[in-house]
Amino acid sequence: MTEKTTGDQVQGAEQHEFSAEVGRLLDLVVHALYSEREIFLRELVANAADASDKRRFEALTDASKALPPNASIRIHPDKDARLLTISDDGAGMNREELAKNLGTIARSGTRAFGEKLSEAKPEDRPSLIGQFGVGFYAAFMVADRVDVISRQPGSDEAWKWSSDGKGAYTLSPASREAPGTDIILHIKSDADEFLDAWRLRSIVRKWADHISWPITLREGEEEKPANEGTALWRKPKSEITAEQYTEFYRHVSHQFDEPYATLHWRAEGTTEFTALLFIPSARPFDFMEQSRESKVHLHVRRMFITDDAELLPVWLRFVQGVVDTEDLPLNVSREMLQSTPVLARIRKAVTKRVMTEIKNRANDAENADGFATFWENFGPIVKEGIWEDSEHRQELAALARFRSTHSDDPTTLDDYISRMKPEQENIYFLTGDNAETLAASPQLEGFRARGIEVLLLSDPVDGFWPERLSSYKDKTLKSISQSHGDLEKFEAPQPEGDAANLDALVPALKEALGENVKDVRGTVRLVGSAVVLTSEGGPDAMMQRLMRRSGQALPPSPPILEINPHHPLIRDLAERAAKGESVADYAQVLLDIARIQDGETLPDATSFAQRLTGMLVASVKN
């Protein structure tokens, strides 16, 4: 959060201004989410529960942070004063943390959030609140001022954060009887419903019934329980409704879709644990920008411990949920989590169960559309496992789906193999940045002419995993850009026109292009195009682009320029070269055309344009 201190000090208050960008974003949160105002309470209660979890965990190693026996989350509506207060006994915040934590909105990417919010459908907007970490600011949908009073355990000092959400906030010393946090909402005149106990109770039951902390609601002079407070994953499946599963999924994932799959089971034996996991049906807006670590929550005896236990491999990081065990001590350290065999067994069992679910759905022909959507959303992540997980590499390859030249419908490797020609030994693929561009690539011409199917791989990870997988069911995976000579094994239709004599043209092109190419040679891979770039003995073009983008230094690896001896342009150039005429300018244009076809950025676009313009002028004159 960009801020500046005005220098005004009134009774110890420090005034800070939000940046203009944060101010605009607050306005978006308030107005774009107007129809979903009730979610403010979900977000504030969730924050209170997180703060309580944090203090309870810290108290395991620091007795001074012990929670009071009656720790709870309290909701107090005051109609006369038009105030709604949400209080907790959690970890609290000091002055610096108030400024930092209530500025999460900027650290999460202010501009990106604004763009996503304005583009999203109304029904999708609430999920953006949780995904971008701006849940606190939902309070301004119903409040024209928000005060936060907080005190940390072990400190006598409390601080107050206050803002109307319009451009500035203040920080000032305050007092609070016990550690914890009070969030005080000055309710807007058009938000009276959020001062009614029945309305608040219905929101808590809808959004926070599963939270294990007691939530109480003041009704008159009484504090009444507002949630059931039962850990949902501990209940028998027969006692849980589909609606309860969905609401819990939305709580842990901060999304508003229905889960694609719900996995709820209890493992017994050497290692005992309960798991409640969800596979989403929609990809989060910023999914590819998120951390690669799995964030499944680890609980020990219902107590939240961490979401950094890496309970699933990174290629299953889209799976959400909770794993609860009694086989670990409550004060388990991060170092112990990395080394304990108990957690290793849990990881293996949980991964196996999720994999079984995905494989079952992949093989369910009656619900193929559902799996196709799942793969479109998360296939690029699952394929990371083919690259980095030797234990699951082959089974992941078996369930993967790919675009190919066979049809518009995705295919599996098994289906590809069933369509291979009798003499075909390899599974052919082509990698690139865009599936549509790949489908039009001249690299495919010779394969299409011979009826050989080619997989079209356009996800970034596709530049890596084929090399690591190497083969599937005794069939070698091979890039068609590195398959010189393969097509000569297959019968092909007779090309149109005579083939040019390349004896003079090839050395002339080599001389003109110099170190820009590794070689120049004729090819049978082309039908309608004049040139194409290929490679040998190193990473193909897609891999080289990915490595350059990641900042890796690459040794020079110039491509091979292959030319089509049956193309009219190549025949004309061959005649020129045979007569001793220069083809230097044509050589550079041919190389640049091949680069453009391959999705490369031209090293000198101006020179290319000048050469091409000169050739067009000469052609028009003739």
UniProtKB/TrEMBL annotation:
Subcellular location: Cytoplasm
Alphabetical keyword list: ATP-binding, Chaperone, Cytoplasm, Nucleotide-binding, Stress response
Top-level taxon in the UniProt lineage: Bacteria
Region (C) location: 546-622
Transmembrane segments: none
Region named A: 1-334
Cellular component terms (Gene Ontology): cytoplasm
CDD domains to which the protein is assigned, alphabetical: HATPase_Hsp90-like (cd16927)
Domain called Histidine kinase/HSP90-like ATPase: residue spans: 36-191
Binding site for ATP: 43, 47, 88, 93, 101, 108-109, 131-136, 181, 334
Gene Ontology molecular function: any one: ATP-dependent protein folding chaperone
Family note: Belongs to the heat shock protein 90 family.
Subunit and partners: Homodimer.
Cited function: Molecular chaperone. Has ATPase activity.
PANTHER family: HEAT SHOCK PROTEIN 90 FAMILY MEMBER (PTHR11528)
Protein known as: Chaperone protein HtpG
